[in-house]
Every structure is written in C-alpha cells, then in structure tokens.
Amino acid sequence: MSHYLGLDIGATNLRCALATAEGGRVGQVAHPTPQGPTVEAFTDGVETAVAAVFKETGVDPAQIAAAGIASLGPLDVDRGVITEPANLACDLRNIPVRTAVASCLPDVPVRLCNDAIAGIVAEYDHSNSTENLAYVTFSSGIGAGVAVDGHILRGRAGNAAEVGHVTLDPDSARRCGCGGRGHWEAFAGGENVPAYAAELAETEGFDDGLLTDRCTAATVFDACGDDPLATETVDRIGDWNAQGMATLVQMFAPQRVAVGGAVALNNERLVLDPIQERIDQYLMNDPPEIALTRFGEDIVLRGALLLAAAEGRPGLSPVSADSKRTDL
Questions:
Q1: Among 111, 195, 233, 268, which one has the highest count of C-beta atoms within 10 angstroms of its own C-beta?
Q2: Alpha helices (H) in the chain, listed in sequence order
Q3: Of 2-11, 17-26, 90-99, 200-209, where does mean pLDDT reach its minimum?
Q4: Structural domain boundaries of the chain?
C-alpha cells in the first residue's frame, strides 16, 4: 500500500506524519525543532523525525509515494532550502531540508512549501473552490497564505504573503528577527513579545517584575488582566494585529480569514477580539469573516500531506476537486 509523508517544520516544533493513499492518517510524531548550532545538526534532527515516524508506524520507507514539507521561511523552493530563518536560536543559512528528507526516501518526489502556504492549502481544500481566502498564523513569527480567485499564491521562490515582515511603524527601533525594523512580527510575533514588553516597561515606567529570564509570550498573555505591563502589552499587540490584518485584507480582499498558530490558538479572545473590534478603522472595505482555523495545530501538517498527495499524483493540484482528502 502506498503512503504519503508530511513534515511540518516550525520554529519551535517539528511534526511528521504518514497517511495512506486513501487519505487515512496512519500515525505521527512530534519533536522540538532543532535550533543548530550547525546546519548539519538541524538536518540531522529532521532526518531523526522522519526515521521516528517510520519506527512509530511500522511503515517501510519503500511504501512512500511522495513527501511534502511545510517549513518556516524564507525559502528557496527551487533549491529546496530554508534561506535565512528569522526565529531560530542560531544564525543558520541555506538549510537543505528537501535533500535531508530525500535522503531518507530514495527516488521519492519531495515537495517544499512555506508553512503558511500549507495552511492555506488545508483550509482551501475544505472551502468553495471559488472562494477568496487567507490563512494567518500567529506563532513564533507571523505569516500568511492566500488564495485569490481560485489560485493559491506562491510567489517568487515560494515566499508570497510574508506579511509578518510588512513595516507597520517605519520610525520604530524595534528589530525583527530578520533584522528589519518596525515589522508586524517585531511587535506581535511570539518570539518578540517579551522584548516588546521590556521596551514598554523601560519607556513608560511599568513595573517589570514579570520579565524574568523565563518570560515568554505565554507568560505575558497569561498575566493579561492581572499584571499592568502584561495588560498594556497585549492591548498594544492587539492594535498592531488589527493594522497588520487590515494590510493583508486590503492587498488580497479575502472573504474569510482563518487564524492559527500557537499564540492565537492558546489565546483566542485576546488575539481575535482586538482584531475584530478595531480592523474597521484601518479598512476602506468591509472586513471579512475572521475566525480560528477548524484544524487547530494540525493545519500545517495537514497541508503538507495534501501537497505530498498531489505530488504523488502528477497533474493534480493540491486543491483540485479530485485531490480533496477530508480525513487526512
């Protein structure tokens, strides 16, 4: 029996799953994303996760028809590499993830895409095929995938809709993980939330007792409503998110925006309410429906499996009617 392999490589977690050609999920594993210190250590971690899913399921690698990788970016999909990831602990460049996966699956086609594009593939697979749709992830970073007039946008080198790196405040000194200043992700990406809170504490006189060495985005969101610094930080992030979402809506005019990523999934009301309440003031047109994705944290892995299924059946788009897999 043929199987498909899907891999979700985020900045924090790495998930790998197998599904049958009929669409049934066979099994999956989750590991922390390798942070370096070298490119080789990163690719070794990817290969370890692939080996682990075969051990977990008992499936022979020879049964794999195709593989799909959904990865943090930016990417060069033609070369099969993550070029300069912004949210890893080490400064790694040109990580050959497609080659790493292919080394575990000789003579098997391996397709690479941005993780947010995999998210839109999964959402679009369950939508009206003519729908204009967007998927936005709030996690370690911020990213988007977009479908316009029945077409999923991939862009040059597979980097369409990298909205986390849209400049919202050109006068800000806040640095994003990519090195730019004033980007949406610099204020609201999970990796940057503690630093943003520290900036507000320093410049506006808030008590900074919340900001221990172990402070994370979860620490700040969990303390919202009890701690003045956390409450102010989350409120400011809400406004940046409304501005960033309005920018995406003005560019692509989606009818619906599905939201995912750990920051949003774990803090639904704190993330979505400010966007829904404030986006009107930044828009010319009516706002779209904005809600959490129906697939939770599984959305990117689901998209990776859909990409693999399409790769294993030449000529099929991963979002064509014939390739829909409602139970992946």
A1: 233
A2: 39-57, 97-104, 115-125, 184-188, 193-204, 217-223, 228-252, 262-266, 268-278, 299-311
A3: 17-26
A4: 3-120+297-323, 127-292
* DSSP notation for 119-151: HHHHHHHTS-TT--EEEEEESSSEEEEEEETTE
User: Which residue type does 304 have?
Assistant: A
| pTM metric for this prediction | 0.92
Chain segment 155-188, per-residue pLDDT in tens: 999 999 999 999 999 999 999 989 999 999 999 9
Average pLDDT score, the chain: 92
Q: Residue 312's pLDDT is what?
A: 58
Complete DSSP assignment for 257-297? EEEESHHHHHSHHHHHHHHHHHGGGG-SSPPPEEEE-TTGG
Residue range 127-292 forms a domain whose CATH class is: alpha beta
Q: How far is CA 11 from its chain centroid?
A: 9
| CATH code reported for the domain at 3-120+297-323 | 3.30.420.40
Distance from CA of residue 218 to its chain's centroid? 17
